[in-house]
């Protein structure tokens, strides 16, 4: 099993942190191979304020844009995913949660732990996950140590929502449990890291965003290219909620 501890430095912030283990949901699966959660309840507890939402979304889209892909979707913040991520963070489990939501479909997830506040922790998480890019080989379809990075830049992932919780006790790979550890969870839809698939189609700069037409089939009535990313027609100001019909519990 993968065991590691990484030191991240960002704008003067130094913190010890761990990214999620590779034996969990981050592992590649074939499309359609996911369990079904029998419940169909959308959580309403949202933890992120607008400035943190903007930091998370802007970071993802900046990095996605830099990849120079023909088929890279713009990411928006989604309240449903944020609620699911918050629920999982509050369970204080070092691992991954649901792979499939009965209303949404397949859900991808990145997890991070460290210390400090949510903003500092989110910045450390984003830099840590994306830092795996240094070990990524675009010619390969395995890259087992890069799954946080590839989820961040998976071409047809178009929505993200994150949550956090300070856990009194968090059992990780370290010899002793971590006390008062910050646990950050980001959920993604559509899920990435499908077996035998690459995260995006890399092209020359002049061809970026040239293959948007079918990217949002079944989701939106159309798509357009905006600053190197494919934008689906139905989102408003970078925020939204995935279409989801469900029956609230009595």
Automatic annotation (TrEMBL):
Gene3D superfamilies: CAP. The keyword RNA-binding does not apply. Residues 51-196 form the SCP domain. The keyword S-adenosyl-L-methionine does not apply. Keywords: Signal. Residues 1-19 form the signal peptide. InterPro entries: CAP_dom, CAP_sf, CRISP-related. It comes from the Eukaryota. Pfam families: CAP. This is SCP domain-containing protein. The lineage of its organism: Eukaryota, Metazoa, Spiralia, Lophotrochozoa, Annelida.
């Amino acid at each position: 099993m993968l065991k590691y501890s990484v030191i991240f430095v960002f704008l003067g912030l130094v913190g010890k942190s761990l990214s999620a283990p590779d034996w969990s949901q981050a592992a590649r699966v074939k499309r359609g191979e996911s369990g079904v959660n029998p419940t169909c309840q959308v959580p309403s507890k949202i933890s992120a304020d607008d400035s943190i939402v903007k930091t998370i979304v802007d970071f993802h889209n900046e990095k996605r844009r830099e990849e120079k892909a023909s088929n890279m979707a713009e990411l928006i913040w989604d309240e449903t995913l944020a609620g699911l991520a918050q629920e999982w963070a509050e369970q204080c489990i070092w691992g991954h949660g649901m792979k499939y939501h009965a209303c949404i479909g397949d859900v991808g997830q990145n997890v991070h732990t460290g210390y400090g506040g949510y903003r500092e922790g989110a910045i450390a998480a984003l830099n840590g996950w994306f830092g795996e890019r240094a070990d990524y080989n675009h010619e390969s379809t395995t890259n087992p140590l890069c799954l946080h990075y590839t989820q961040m830049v998976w071409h047809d992932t178009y929505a993200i929502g994150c949550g956090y919780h300070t856990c009194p006790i968090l059992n990780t790979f370290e010899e002793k449990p971590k006390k008062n550890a910050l646990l950050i969870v980001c959920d993604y839809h559509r899920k990435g890291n499908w077996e035998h698939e690459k995260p995006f189609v890399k092209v020359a700069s002049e061809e970026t965003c040239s293959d948007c037409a079918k990217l949002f089939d079944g989701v939106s009535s159309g798509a357009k290219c905006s600053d190197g990313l494919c934008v689906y027609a139905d989102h408003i100001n970078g925020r939204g909620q995935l279409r989801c019909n469900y029956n609230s519990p009595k």
